[in-house]
Write a structure and sequence with these properties.
Blueprint (H helix, E strand, L loop, with lengths): L21 H24 L5 H27 L9 H17 L4 H24 L5 H30 L1
Length: about 170
């Protein structure tokens, strides 16, 4: 029996070691999650009715984007390959939050702000996980700045959400 000419057969077996240390793994998780979170912020930003909350999110989005670029550049300079996030996951999450806010009575901004708080909290925890590892001081400084900005964003969004619920 002759092989189908449309098929290409590979007989060479390639063995690769894809082991990473704990620090690299945590940093990869962080950079991937950060990219997805920033994409999520962009997806929901235009749907926030509260101008102060939208402006606050925009400011933190710009800061975190710059910090992520610096973290990735630092990782590349050390010979690493930063992981990219899954933009489709961020888009689907943003769509889910927007639809939930539209359908839920009284949802609106409160649901979106809560989702932003959850995403920023998760990102700060991921930065914390990398900071627990033995990393160079300049890298620790970048991740600490990122975590600080995430916590500041959480404070802004919670403050805006509480003001909206007081109305």
């Amino acid at each position: 029996m002759k092989p189908n000419p449309g098929w290409v057969q590979y007989t060479r077996k390639v063995t690769m070691s894809i082991t990473k240390d704990e620090t690299t793994t945590r940093l990869d998780v962080f950079t991937s999650l950060a990219a997805e979170t920033l994409e999520f912020y962009e997806r929901v930003h235009d749907y926030i009715e509260d101008e102060a909350a939208g402006s606050g999110l925009s400011t933190h989005l710009d800061t975190q984007r710059r910090l992520l670029d610096n973290v990735k550049a630092d990782q590349r300079a050390r010979g690493g390959l930063p992981q990219e996030g899954d933009p489709e996951r961020a888009q689907l999450h943003g769509l889910y939050v927007r639809l939930s806010a539209a359908v839920r009575s009284g949802g609106g901004d409160a649901l979106i702000l809560e989702a932003v708080v959850n995403a920023a909290t998760e990102l700060a925890e991921s930065a914390d996980a990398v900071l627990e590892c033995d990393i160079p001081p300049d890298q620790a400084e970048l991740l600490t700045a990122f975590k600080t900005d995430c916590n500041a964003l959480v404070d802004v969004m919670r403050g805006r959400a509480s003001r909206r619920s007081d109305r």
